[in-house]
Amino acid sequence: SDDGLVSANIILGSVTVYGDGRAKATAKFENGLIRYPGIYLNTDGHLSEDKVMQDGNKYHNFSYVIRSKTDYNKFKKPLNDIVHPLGTKTFIIRTDDNSEVITPSDNNQTVTVKTLPTTFNIVYGANSTTNTTANLMSFVNVGDVVIFTGVYRHVANTVNVTLGSNTVFGNNSNFINDIQDGDIIYLSTGNTETVLSVSNSKYLITQNTIGVTATNVTINLNFNETKTVTFVNANTIKVDTAFTSNTINIVTNVKKVK
Question: Where residue 33 falls among pLDDT bands split at 50, 70, 90?
Fold first, then answer.
């Protein structure tokens, strides 16, 4: 029984007796059933966890993901030469100011993303942005992560392009530090191109051929600038680090961890 107490009355004539009746014993009743709240032993069967539908690109036994604050092109060659398993495919997630991964610290927290009802102007080297058309304190709190989307960042020095070619040649540039495969770049010639690969510090290959010939072309990189809010009032947001871009009228999202 659950409380460990048992009482009984023995009725003479209803008990079968064995032996001479001199044996003695003590009865002890153990509680064999223990009840606990339901728990999961692992994440098998959880939606959007480690179990996903296998495909022919990423989710199978022959691919792996690397999360790094270092540009892929800086460690691509030693990775392939030393530890990359032959026949597998590498996926890179860069977790710096351009793309920050937010993970709740426990299962009771949730992450919400809200788009602010106004656009903002940010200035290179500054750590605050002001907009007078919205009451920011209704939407943003200190500690929130703000994401300024579609930001343009100027890449140092200029480049040369050639009609009918998909190679961009940099003048005193260092593409390996500034650009990685898959980035979207904007040239002052009016071209918008997706980077297929960064060959070295001075050459990059675009997915499409470029339709002009020009020298001393400026180049801008499209990315998301991610910052943590350190101060907010009705029309001003201050963030933890200075902006690396200079862009006006940009859409802004706020990530909240509850």
Answer: low
How crowded is residue 89: how many other Cβ atoms within 10 Å of its Cβ? 13
Q: How far is CA 233 from CA 37, 197, 229, 246, in A?
A: 45, 43, 11, 22
**Strands 128-130 vs 89-94: parallel, antiparallel or unpaired:** unpaired
User: pLDDT per residue over 158-207, tens digit each?
Assistant: 999 999 999 999 988 888 877 888 888 889 888 889 998 888 888 899 99
pTM assigned to the model: 0.45
pLDDT-based confidence at residue 130 (cuts at 50, 70, 90)? confident
3-state secondary structure the chain: CCCCCCCCCCCCCCCCCCCCCCCCCCCCCCCCCCCCCCCCCCCCCCCCCCCCCCCCCCCCCCEEEEEECCCHHHHHHHHHHHHCCCCCEEEEEECCCCCCCCCCCCCCCCEEEEEEEEEEEECCCCCEEECCCCCHHHCCCCCCEEEEEEEEEECCCCEEECCCEEEEEECCCCHHHHCCCCCEEEECCCCEEEEEEECCCCEEEEEEEECCCEEEECEEEEEEEEEEEEEECCCEEEECCCCCCCEEEEEEEEEEEC
Amino acid (one-letter) located at 226: T
